[in-house]
Amino acid sequence: MADAPAETPEEDIFEQKAVRLDKRERLIAERQDAAGGAYPVQVPITTTITAVREEFGELEAGTETGQTAGVAGRIVFSRNTGKLCFASLQAGDGTRIQAMVSLASVGDESLARWKELVDLGDHVFISGEIISSRRGELSIMVAEWQIAAKAVMPLPNLHNELNEETRVRQRYLDLIVRDKARETVIARAKTNASLRETFAHHAFTEVETPMLQVQPGGATARPFVTHSNAFDTELFMRIAPELYLKRAVVGGIDRVFEINRNFRNEGADSTHSPEFAMLEAYQAYSDYNGIADLTQELIQNAAIAVAGSTIVTWADGTEYDLGGQWDRLSMYPSLSEAAGVTVTPETSMEDLLALADTAGVEVPPHATHGKLVEELWEHFVKEHLTRPTFVMDFPVDTSPLVREHRSVPGVVEKWDLYVRGFELATGYSELVDPVIQRERFVEQAKLADRGDAEAMRIDEDFLRALEHGMPPTGGMGMGIDRLLMAITGLGIRETILFPLVK
Fold it and tell me: Is position 357 annotated in a ligand binding site?
């Protein structure tokens, strides 16, 4: 039985599907409990393919163990000869074992049924003796078998690469045929487990906050809007959990974090997705320096959990060192050095616009001093960062939820962490004064009135919470999808299991 071609024509797929559906009808006809459909509710497995390979993987060629096993898996290779059929069964983790269906072991009728009914992609249960074939292949000499579920669509050729569109749109096929796809899912699970373990070590509490909010907040981003029939009101998919997590800190949960989904009605590219996973954490009586230390520990521990080391190997074979103590540089001094012009919080918009014009930097809509400084910094400095780097001390007007710097006028105690040339995380010394926070919200509201769709709104309920007293706090946010990008070197559409596609 040959593999399906890499690009099977539609008419061939239609014909193969029709043949497989006929086989399904035969399975139904053969079932004594036909009301149950073509497939059994369960099969009598006694172990897993992975467990068999772990225990017997070193058998010498030609060895018979005398031990039997009942396993199930997907047929990913099949070769039928006269009196002996071979098939590879694949477990969900990609582990495989060979099935040997011989005339001597199963008899004429069962062998004929195997040849007639079993196709690539089918889930099959087999039971028999564990052996090593004459060629040294770990195998089960089948005594009994049954189809657990039939693939009525043919699998793609396992020897050919799926194109990116197929991998993204039909991720289930990607998971079946490509080891790296499964490894990425496992890496993500290990990353999340490591994050939670590190937080537990530091006595953090994990919580869940609303996905649907009556008012978007916690970030400067364009929200998705929906309508609640029950409440007859407009609701927003959350752009960040920040304001609710801070409410928790006000309530006395001094160390709190959440790993969950955010939604931003903005562009999609190699580092952005409208729906993405986000980690946010807040630690009372810490600041942006302390939360930077914690963030470095979280990422390094996650790298070790996935790669076994802080030196990770990306998908293109490049090694990247996430170890050691990461660099910290200030935004205004680093911009001044790179541009050859002194830029400070007091630099006029006129001078900033002139520098942007000279450097060919596009001026963003609704430009403010801070937005323009950040655009200039990205132009002059970002591409030269090679090691993981905390970029510290941002302009006030782009950071409405951040405390002003304790010693440097005109900036706030905020950092962005850059890894692999993209922003991976951001951290603050949180603004906890409700009077100043109201003033910042008012300034944001003015930007919104001028047409800035990403500006924050005045959140009276959050301000009321702050008025009850929030301790000095360090906070951070990090994209889980981007963390996987930093560890694996993959793009965001690979690190998200089922990304949104048009």
Answer: no
